[in-house]
Input
Amino acid sequence: MTPALAGHLDRCLTCRACELACPSLVAFGQLMDGAKAARVEGLSPWRRSIRLTRLRLLSQPRLTSLLAQVARWYRRLGFTQLADRIGASRLPGLGPLHRLAGVLPTTARAPIPSAPESPDLELFVGCMGGLAQGRAIAAARALCEALGLRVRVAAKSGCCGALFRHNGFPAEADARRAAWARDPSDPPLVGLASACVAELREGTQSRHALELCDFLDRLAPLDRLSLRPLPGRALVHEPCSHRNLLKDTGAIYRVLRLIPELDVQSLPGNATCCGAAGTYLLDQPAMAGALLSDKLAALAERAPDYLVTTNPGCALHLAAGIREAGLTVEVCHPVELIERQRVASGE
Output
């Protein structure tokens, strides 16, 4: 392990676009995860402990809910504008945290677990759901119930394992993924975050996990819905986890095109990563920002009303860039637009 090799490992996004391009079908994702695990194994015990503790904190739902409250006060007390004015947002280490604090939802709450009899699906929330996808989770729950589906929100919220696997702790990742093992009699496990669904699918006991748009497109009776027209343009950002691992983004477009008058297009440059890539936006902010700039240029050119994405990390990263660029584009999950336009019974 030389410094040059370590630098290459650190700068790899693990987006796995190379796997789709490789004519020999080399499993680069497994190679990268294995190399990172070997590197972590070579660290001193105390350095391994520090890294593992950091990941455990980042994957703790209670802590992420606390971070949302901190972000709210950070903005309310004017620290966002102060940091922008004095240039503190460009300081190493502080910059990425400042950018995220400026866009974290302030109304985020941990979803209330529910356990109806014989549920039709179990909604996977994950460790970041209450922080970054609170509105999307509420929308998914309301939409499914409007379709006559009984939804169980998992009482055990926690990491799918991806955060640990891509940072060199495969044993910890396997243990967390195994917690979501499914029996044939269990209801389908449906997730809103494409990266979580991709991680769960790679496990032998939870490979039938479904991404929400795919579930709605194939299994939910969406034709029962009455949707209000929504004049405007929505660009679809395809996260690397959805495009390169789940390998089917078509359901996103199909469910969005059910909304009358909504112009649905793909975001130019979807074949390349936005730079979020899990903890990459925190660990490699310069490269993450360079990749983000291409997305922002496409958004400035196309001027959409909405940018939809199925990954919460990408959503925060893109929203932070949009805020800094002075663009007026709402970033949301596809299910939020559908639920927003749904005509409730009796209206």
DSSP finds 19 helices and eight strands in the chain. Residues 226-341 form a domain with the Rossmann fold fold (CATH 3.40.50). The two ends are 65 Å apart (CA to CA). The CA atoms of residues 219 and 288 lie 36 Å apart.
